[in-house]
Design brief:
The protein is mainly alpha-helical. It contains nine helices and no strands.
Length: 226
């Protein structure tokens, strides 16, 4: 086992755990509604850490780590946008399988990360009449692009691959979790808006920038000799 891969496998989940612990502690000092929205700024620490770790790893092994981070940065991993009929749940499963097959036959990790950037950008369309664009991108494009990107990034070393598969569980929690009781019982009813507000532009912009940064790092690693 590579010593660098071992360090990355330990440090990255530890950073995610510390960040989540810090978010939870900060909830008690929220004070005003929306104060926790700034957590995305600190979430960029995870993106920087993953990119630095992938560049530090040997050869091209870190590309699969970037693929996993791009999947997390695309956002809305746990969105509840599935139809009520359970057979429809087979659709994302089929898309994952299709993406994996295409990724092995036509491996282009940067192309997959570009598709994940489109998913991240679709978060701007959360309000009618364009909200179906975001739902469709999350439900249809996200599983296809994520599996394609990861499959395109293989083969890699076994420790790095294992770390990459654990990244969504280890790093997504501090970014997508709802913090504080206001997430479940707001004091006032939210106003209906026709378009994205300033926070939607900020959070979406950060998501897209994070995915693009992963893509640029993957393109750089792709030039390294195997």
């Amino acid at each position: 086992m590579s010593a660098r891969a071992l360090v990355v496998g330990i440090v990255l989940p530890l950073i995610g755990l510390v960040l989540y612990w810090w978010f939870v502690r900060r909830v008690w000092n929220v004070g005003t509604y929306g104060a926790m929205q700034g957590r995305w700024m600190f979430g960029l620490v995870l993106v920087v850490a993953v990119i630095a770790a992938s560049l530090w790893l040997e050869s091209r092994t870190g590309i699969v780590l970037l693929a996993a981070m791009a999947f997390v940065a695309a956002g809305d991993i746990g969105v509840a946008a599935f139809p009520d009929s359970w057979p429809w749940l087979l659709v994302p499963a089929a898309l994952v399988l299709t993406g994996a097959v295409l990724g092995r036959r036509f491996p282009h990790p940067v192309l997959g990360i570009a598709a994940l950037a489109v998913v991240a950008a679709s978060a701007l369309f959360e309000h009618p009449p364009w909200d179906n664009l975001h739902v469709g991108a999350t439900w249809l494009l996200l599983p296809l692009a994520a599996s394609y990107t990861v499959a395109s990034s293989l083969p890699s070393s076994e420790p790095v691959t294992a770390t990459s598969l654990a990244v969504p569980a280890a790093l997504a929690v501090p970014l997508i979790a709802d913090y504080g009781w206001t997430a479940y019982a707001p004091l006032v009813e939210s106003e209906r808006t026709l378009g994205p507000d300033s926070w939607a532009w900020t959070s979406t912009g950060l998501s897209v920038a994070a995915v693009v940064a992963c893509g640029l790092a993957a393109a750089h690693l792709g030039k390294r000799p195997t």
